[in-house]
Amino acid sequence: MSGNCVGERTQALSLDLTIKKKWFDMIRSGIKKEEYREIKPYWNKRLLSRVFNVVHFRNGYLKDSPWLTIELVGIYSGLGIIEWGAPENEPVFILRLGEIITQSN
Q1: pTM for this model (two decimals)
Q2: pLDDT (tens digit, 9 = 90+) per residue, 7-22?
Q3: What is the CB neighbour count within 10 angstroms for residue 30?
């Protein structure tokens, strides 16, 4: 796992993200340990303007869509794992994930 840490995580604040079923299921099962976001002005502002400790993932936009809350170990920049959805040879924000805290049934 390479990359540069882009912030310290000291306050409890949730980052809410909606993701596709494939990635949601891989994270829930413990296979996928990282989530990726493009290094663009939108994500720069959203990810670096606050200090997050957890990520609240939602699979869909409906009220009863499956969800899980997971520890956010850190946000880094670097190359991600292609099999986990990272683009090839393109630096991204890497959201390094820890343990699942809570989830829907």
Answers
A1: 0.85
A2: 554 446 899 999 999 9
A3: 10
